[in-house]
Design brief:
The complex is a heterodimer of chains A (331) and B (303). With 331 residues, chain A is of the alpha/beta class. Chain A is built from 13 helices and twelve strands. The radius of gyration of chain B is 23 Å and the shape is globular. The chains are: A alpha/beta (331), B mainly alpha (303).
Chain lengths: 331, 303
């Protein structure tokens, strides 16, 4: 079976140079930020892939590349057999893709227009794609969508500021579901919420996935949330995917030292009293990444090849890893 | 009705009630506007109806002075027109010009600022540099220039009839950069918010995002600037009229009245120019105080 979403060597570079006049006067070179480099992975229909990593590692950029908010500098993104770049050229194809791929944002306080009523917010995708034109049927559909996320039709009359963070995030989910999408990209959908509300939203998302056969790309830096919701996990570091594979494999037997470091840092009730290993060091400046493997300044297993070249992604033990030390250890 | 109740329950109404200066200013401004708008009904005379004016009544002092005539409360000018009535009719013209000019500035400034902020890149640079260049010249100079150029395109016999439109156009055109800058700044802030990205993900067109999502969220500051600019536009119009490039004497505004009256200042008929001047000052100051209060009341950082 063909993968539903496919990323092939996708890179995204941002031009962060000073303005032209400053560059000329101060003789500064042009500077580029490699937010995402050479990322490839597949997502199968109906599964949940989680991307994890520290702040600034390019998770959100990957999400925006897939949804089409950014165009990749290199490589290609294919959704359901449609290349995003070629789809963008024809209005019909891009409309169809827009309908199929929706996104849930991180900040429920910024992702809903404060001047719009909730019913209008939820109905926007339907109106934009002209899925339902009859006003009575539209009202019914909006009520149904609000019902999916455990809100009532009456809530549609209110404005976003009259809801709590968890309720707002559920409104976002209702809006994302309005165009009957097949693929939802969730960019840290629970990180702005209280823990009790997080569970509520996550369980709702799981239920909806089961009922509607949705495919999720779930972005988070909370490993426990990922453990709860994901089928497969990808670990990103400085714009690259360093380890990606089945959740049980990656969490149970991490191969990349960075994955191990992240997992060691998770608080655990069984380990109360014992010292945990904190995540050491900091992410290097992406404007000036270290030579060789980008993780080498922080890596406990650093050895000669790490400083010379970048490790290739190699498939073994049921996952893909980019690490010389891991490859060395496995014959 | 519900909206009205919500208004009387709001912070804005509360802070309005608590500021006596603002209440006085608002009442004065309202009186000026009311007097101006309903001049044909409320004014004791129609100063532009030749059948009603008589040269015998010319240069009468205000009613409380020795030679005053009680039917001309603030006296008459050299043609026997009632000063109170000319002020009411004159502020009608002044207000009309100010409101139309500000509306024109808003229309231009908001749409250009919105496009500049949303589109970015070269379009933004172009629009904002034009705005910057215009801002380096004093506003009144630009208005003089525009009205001078615009007059050249109007046939000589139409000049008086077209004067109103020319002056609205020239004041309106000088005001837009302020709105464009404000709206551009607010648009840049709104554009980066996630609800705009959400709309893009849904597939909403750029123009629809600009006008239906971003525009309602950037109009707050525009309202404040507009109120303050009404006062500025009244002054600009009075200045242009005083300098003789504004409203013609057949259709005088407050500025024209002051300009005509000052010829008689040294012959003792001070009321011809002082009363229109006082009316102008009251109108401008009260609108300004109201605008200042509005700016503070709508500024979330000062609450």
């Amino acid at each position: 079976m063909n993968p539903f979403v496919q990323l092939n060597n996708v890179s995204k570079t941002f031009d962060v140079s000073a303005p032209w006049l400053n560059r000329v006067l101060e003789r500064k070179p042009q500077t580029f930020l490699h937010a995402v480099s050479d990322v490839s992975f597949d997502i199968r229909r109906g599964e949940t892939l989680a991307l994890v990593g520290e702040s600034g590692c390019g998770k959100s950029t990957v999400a925006r590349l897939i949804v089409g908010l950014y165009a990749p500098s290199q490589g290609s993104v294919t959704v359901d057999g449609q290349d995003m770049k070629s789809a963008a050229q024809s209005t019909d194809a891009s409309r169809a893709l827009r309908r199929k791929v929706q996104m849930i944002f991180q900040d429920p306080y910024a992702s809903l227009n404060p001047r719009w009523r909730v019913a209008d917010i939820v109905a926007e995708p339907i109106r934009t794609h002209k899925l339902i034109t009859d006003p009575a049927a539209l009202d019914k559909r909006v009520a149904e969508l609000l019902g999916f996320v455990k809100l009532t039709a009456k809530d549609g009359e209110k404005y976003p500021h009259q809801f709590s963070g968890g309720q707002r995030q559920r409104i976002s989910i209702a809006r994302a579901l309005a165009s009957n999408p097949e693929f939802l990209i969730c960019d840290e959908p629970t990180s702005a919420l209280d823990v009790s509300v997080q569970a509520q939203v996550l369980n709702l998302m799981k239920d909806l996935q089961r009922e509607m056969g949705l495919t999720y790309l779930f972005i988070s830096h909370n490993l426990q949330v990922v453990h709860h919701i994901a089928d497969r996990v990808g670990v990103m570091y400085l714009g690259r995917v360093v380890e990606i594979g089945d959740k049980r494999e990656v969490f149970g037997n991490p191969q990349h030292p960075y994955t191990r470091m992240l997992l060691d840092a998770i608080p655990d009730l069984k380990m109360t009293g014992k010292a945990r290993t904190p995540v050491a060091g900091e992410v290097p400046n992406p404007l000036n990444p270290p030579a060789g493997c980008a993780f080498n300044p922080r890596c406990p297993k650093r050895f000669a090849p790490c400083d010379q070249s970048r490790p290739q992604t190699v498939s073994f033990k049921g996952r893909d890893v980019a690490c010389f030390a891991a490859q060395e250890a496995t014959p | 009705m519900e909206a009205l109740n919500r208004f009387f329950d709001s912070d804005v109404w509360w802070s309005f009630k608590r500021s006596p200066v603002t209440v006085v200013a608002a009442v004065l401004a309202l009186l000026c506007i009311l007097g101006a708008v309903s001049a044909p009904v409320l004014a004791p005379h129609n100063p532009y109806d030749l059948a009603q004016i008589s040269l015998l009544d010319s240069n009468l002092p205000p009613a409380w002075q020795a030679n005053g005539n009680p039917s001309f409360k603030l006296g008459t000018d050299q043609q026997g027109r009632d000063i109170l009535s000319t002020i009411m009719y004159g502020s009608r013209v002044s207000l009309l010009v100010a409101v139309c000019a500000v509306a024109m500035s808003i229309l231009m400034g908001v749409s250009l600022g919105l496009v500049a902020g949303y589109a970015g890149g070269r379009i933004e640079s172009l629009i904002m540099r034009i705005a910057d260049i215009q801002l380096t010249f004093p506003a009144i100079l630009v208005a003089l220039l525009i009205s001078g150029v615009a007059r050249q395109f109007v046939p000589r016999d139409m000049q008086d009839a077209m004067a109103l439109y020319v002056i609205i156009f020239s004041i309106g055109l000088t005001g837009w950069p302020q709105y464009a800058r404000t709206v551009r700044g607010a648009t840049l802030v709104e554009k980066s918010k996630e609800y705009v990205q959400a709309a893009r993900v849904i597939g909403v067109s750029s123009s629809s995002i600009m006008f239906r999502h971003v525009l309602p969220n950037v109009l707050g500051p525009v309202l404040v600037i507009a109120t303050l600019n009404i006062a500025n536009a009244i002054i600009a119009e009075a200045t242009l009229s005083f300098l003789g490039v504004g409203m013609p004497p057949t259709q005088p505004s407050l500025g024209t009245l002051i300009s005509e009256g000052q010829n008689f200042l040294f012959s003792g008929e001070w009321w011809i120019t002082v009363f229109p001047g006082a009316a102008l000052i009251v109108m401008v100051i009260s609108v300004n105080i109201f605008g200042d209060w509005l700016r503070d009341a709508l500024n979330p950082k000062l609450r």
